[in-house]
Design brief:
The protein is of the alpha+beta class. The protein has one domain. It is 22% helix and 38% strand. It has a five-stranded antiparallel sheet with strand order 1-5-4-10-13. A three-stranded antiparallel sheet has the order 3-7-6, with helices on both faces. A three-stranded antiparallel sheet has the order 9-12-11. It is globular, with a radius of gyration of 20 Å.
Length: 274
């Protein structure tokens, strides 16, 4: 049995193992296209030096004050997760020819929020209604220059939704960085599905880090992972820093939502278990 007391002030939310993208799209000829109009800042997050932009989500409410409060809570949570988040990976199965076969459970720990300071510490910069929800982009108020609003492209971008985004089929590669692709099925509203896709994108990064650590290690009897020679019962406790969700996408035929996460390799830290 594994104790979850290591989460301390966190509440842990189990995630499904990130689904893998079918590669049948890579060989499928493009017949026609269908477009959706989505804010450019949501399709690809703007890069603004010194400002830690993050996405926020809310359901739609008749009371706009409630809607704004939910967006601010979402922004606070996502910005803190982007700065630093703790993820626990539980694996049971076998390792043959350096290939793991078995089950994986990924748990992302939520950060604790100071509800009294959220409205002062975070700012919603832009928002856009979609379905029954709201998409927004936000930042820490302290990083914003007074009297100098951020220049963010507020135009709607035409996005082909009849196939997954190209980066989901073939993720970007850049030396020193790890990219994670997250998928999520259709939920009651798009903003909920994209939120799950973001979690799965971070989980994908963790799984890649585990593979890199295994490949560098000649022995799989590490106490940090709890490996046994015959049947693996492994748990890994990771701290990810500066994980940025940089892109979103949608595929209508599969009703699948996508998110792309990026992190520097040096910002993945394996926490030694006591």
């Amino acid at each position: 049995m594994i104790s979850f007391s290591i989460c301390l002030h966190f509440s842990c939310t189990p995630l499904q193992t990130p689904p893998k993208l079918s590669n049948h799209y890579s060989n499928k000829k493009k017949v026609h296209t269908e477009y959706a109009r989505i804010p450019a800042w949501f399709i690809q997050k703007p890069e603004i030096p010194g400002v830690n932009l993050s996405f926020a989500y809310s359901s739609r409410y008749l009371e706009k004050e409630i809607e704004l409060q939910q967006l601010l809570i979402s922004a606070a949570k996502n910005i803190q997760i982007a700065n630093e988040t703790q993820i626990i990976v539980l694996q049971t199965g076998s390792l043959q020819a350096d290939t793991f076969t078995g089950g994986t459970q990924i748990i992302e720990c939520d950060v604790s929020l100071d509800m009294n300071s959220i409205s002062n510490n975070y700012t919603i910069i832009e928002q856009y209604p979609i379905g029954n929800g709201i998409l927004a982009i936000a930042a820490e108020t302290s990083q914003l220059s007074k009297g100098h609003p951020l220049k963010i492209n507020t135009l709607l971008k035409k996005v082909n939704i009849l196939s997954p985004p190209k980066w989901a089929i073939k993720p970007p590669t850049r030396k020193g960085f790890i990219y994670g692709v997250g998928l999520a099925p259709s939920y009651s509203s798009p903003e909920k599905a994209w939120g799950v896709a973001e979690q799965n994108a971070r989980a994908d990064i963790v799984l890649q880090v585990i593979v890199k650590i295994r490949n560098k290690s000649k022995s799989f009897e590490s106490t940090d992972f709890g490996y046994h020679e015959e049947n693996i019962k492994a748990w890994s406790n990771f701290k990810l820093k500066n994980v940025s969700i940089i892109k979103h996408g949608y595929c209508k035929p599969d009703r699948t939502y996508y998110a792309l996460a990026r992190m520097k390799e040096i910002d993945a830290e394996l926490i030694k278990l006591d």
